[in-house]
Specification:
A six-stranded mixed β-sheet has the order 3-4-2-1-5-6. The chain is α+β, with helices and mostly antiparallel strands. It contains six helices and six strands; from the N terminus they run αββααββαββαα.
Length: 183
């Protein structure tokens, strides 16, 4: 994939397919290290499946015989000199973590994280999504539960105007706390 935000989208879509009601995404930038974590409370994976999940020929999908999202995410992190880890417990959920070295020639751009979160909300408006962006201690947090509380029952969170507001707010805040850069 050409942007990390697309990897994040793919992994969060896996969480949705796993029946998650809560998906937490965090981006932590410290110097030249970007940590990306996606945690869900979905079905989780068995130990046997977890051992093979980074193999592109392992997938739980019935529509195709390959699953490249997690293997690509792992490869993208490791190509920068970073690392990848995935932990999962059946009935509790999954944590997918990757560290990217941002000054590596192999680092792919983060991409449009606002668009990614907006797309996830449009696809699954009943799920609670949270996003934490931490750039050297400057923190921006977003939570769909807070937005839903403000909107009340009259305006759905997947309303196109609300989605545009969410996308723009996320990107603007990331830009501001990262000193005028989105990576």
């Amino acid at each position: 994939m050409r942007e990390l935000s697309l990897n994040i989208l793919d992994i969060a879509e896996n969480s949705i397919s796993a029946g998650a009601s809560l998906i937490d995404i965090s981006l932590i930038l410290r110097d030249k290290r970007l940590s990306v974590n996606i945690r869900d409370n979905g079905r989780g994976m068995s130990r046997e499946f977890l051992k093979t999940v980074t193999d592109p020929f392992t997938t739980s999908r019935t529509t195709r015989k390959v699953g490249v999202g997690i293997p690509f995410f792992k490869m993208a992190a490791e190509m920068t000199g970073g690392s990848f880890d995935i932990e999962s417990t059946v009935g509790e959920g999954t944590l997918t973590s990757a560290v990217f070295i941002t000054d590596s020639v192999d680092f792919i751009p983060l991409g449009d994280i606002g668009e990614t979160v907006g797309t996830l909300i449009m696809h699954a408006p009943l799920i609670s999504f949270s996003l934490k962006i931490d750039v050297n201690g400057k923190i921006y947090e977003f939570d769909t539960m807070e937005i839903k509380d403000v909107l009340g029952e009259d305006v759905p969170i997947d309303n196109p105007e609300v989605i545009d507001f969410i996308k723009n707010t996320i990107n603007e805040n990331f830009y501001n706390i990262n000193g005028g850069s989105i990576l």
